[in-house]
Specification:
The protein is an alpha/beta fold. It is 58% helix and 11% strand. The model has no long low-confidence stretch (mean pLDDT 87).
């Protein structure tokens, strides 16, 4: 027991929390299975590796500030028309991030664009990619406030850093000139090596409705759409269906 306590202290000092947490169980298993030293050590090292991977995923998920606890596995394909299993499986692997591709999720209100974007963000975190979710209106407020406080460059670095940036609800209202200049700055700083997801009710051809300067609109559209996977979601609003379901449940009670 003293030897085990001493080993736990050493593991704690070395910040090997995964090994420390599984030590007692591994000692018992090792004795029962008559494991050799190398096999025993290999199992402990695997425990540490699993612990660190899981801890990193949890850090990435917290930093991502995803709006919904969504996963690609939980998507209901019959109600998420316009998607297929192969497409979702490809997104879950993060290949689009490695290739620096963007994703445009387009479709009418209520069809699940934000849910899908959050699900892709969740998969990205679990694949080890840093992610940041931003509502477009919130981003506008943040840039205005950062400019007023003189911290705009700090905000720009924060938005440039993640492997994946999710901009939700683009096009809800027209952008002011400073707004679309800030958006251009963000996309330009991120360059072609980092991925961005944009959800919008507006087709790309109609983005001039929210960016009234033709040159700025073309520059922003080119940076987002020229190397993008386009997912056009179809179907009736799921919000209405959920409301009807809740009403029916209340009527039955």
């Amino acid at each position: 027991m003293k030897m085990e306590q001493s080993t736990e202290t050493l593991l704690m000092d070395l910040k090997l929390q995964g090994m420390r947490g599984s030590l007692s169980q591994r000692l018992k298993h090792g004795a029962e299975a008559d494991l050799g030293y190398e096999d025993f050590l290999s199992l402990l090292l695997q425990d540490e590796l699993d612990y660190r991977r899981n801890a990193r995923i949890q850090r990435l998920l917290r930093a991502a500030t995803l709006r919904q606890a969504a996963s690609l596995e939980s998507l209901d394909l019959p109600t998420q028309r316009g998607l297929d299993k192969k497409q979702l499986a490809d997104l879950s692997g993060g290949r689009f991030i490695r290739e620096g591709l963007n994703i445009l999720i387009l479709g009418p209100t209520g069809v699940g664009k934000t849910f899908l974007a959050s699900a892709v963000g969740n998969a990205a975190c679990r694949a080890g990619y840093s992610t940041l979710f931003c509502r477009m209106n919130t981003l506008i407020e943040q840039t205005v406030l950062a400019r007023a406080k003189g911290t705009y460059l700090n905000l720009l670095r924060r938005l440039t850093a993640p492997d994946l940036l999710i901009l939700d609800d683009f096009g809800i209202k027209p952008l002011l000139p400073q707004n679309y200049q800030d958006l251009y700055d963000i996309l330009d700083e991120r360059g072609e090596g980092k991925s961005t997801i944009v959800t919008s009710q507006l087709p790309v051809a109609n983005w001039s409705e929210v960016i009234d300067d033709p040159v700025s609109c073309e520059a922003i559209t080119d940076r987002l759409a020229s190397r993008a996977i386009k997912l056009e979601m179809k179907g009736a609003s799921q919000r209405g269906k959920r409301t009807k379901q809740r009403d029916a449940e209340l009527d039955n009670n």
